[in-house]
Amino acid sequence: MKEVKFAVFTDLHYDHIHDGQRRLKNFIADIQEKDIDFIVNLGDFCKATKNNNSLLDILNSTGRPYYNLIGNHDSDSCDREEVLRFFGMKDSYYSFKYGDIKFIALDTCFIQYDREYVPYCKKNYDSSAGIYPVLPEEELNWLKKELKEECPYFVILSHHSFENEFMKRGVHNRNEVQQLINDINKTEKRVLMCLNGHDHADSIRKIGDTYYFAVNAMSYIWFGPQYEHFTYSEDIHERYPFIKDLVLYEEGLYTIVTILPDGNIKIDGMEGCFQTVSPKELGIEGDWNGRAITARISSLNTDNNK
Ligand SMILES: [Fe+2]
To answer: Ranges for the Calcineurin-like phosphoesterase domain (predicted)?
Structure first.
């Protein structure tokens, strides 16, 4: 097999920031130079409205395939069907193959009430007494079937993490998924890595033989009204009322992941900085949502022989 190389970004949250187009265009310009096979968007991209079709045009302009995942905020102002239509997706979870690697894209935006699973829709999670985010039983069974296919390597993509333990950040039934992955790794097949967005933070953690990679957001960290700050022009604050609660990164963070024929992984990270004010200047230090606060994406070079 030849190496497989893809670009990943997540959590643009286009409608909440003033410079989303710039971030996306810079990303596209950067990756044009690189010999990548496809692009992955791990979710929380934008509102699924006609006005935002231009963002899809930007992604399409690369001529490379791109794969979308649904984030918790993508359906904040519409239902699931509209999001799928916007992205031209047939299903909210699916798989695709490049070389010897099967990529499995999951939809973790569900609320569980006993044995019933309700997809996120118009912020229904906000007032819900149910369990969320969760991978529904039917989808978990589908994942098990996918992992049974004859294929040496797998990569799992999801909006929410399968290892973040902090409050409701990670997928509720993540232990079941981790167990499934560990079982697969005992055979001749291997789940090389799981990639997620949503955490707006940078983390790479190895559990068993699998790397769990939380990809930092393309745009910002949300700290909430408690840390509001007015560091942009009046006009920007008027047009983007939530920007006062965010700390934006200057760069549109993204990463390039290469999977080598022997299963080794190379992550080309990115160093960034905060745009107008740092969390430290706002009095925020330590962890946030169970992750270190940072405007960067880490690099990684694995060596299976070690
Ligand atoms: Fe999210």
So the answer is: 5-201
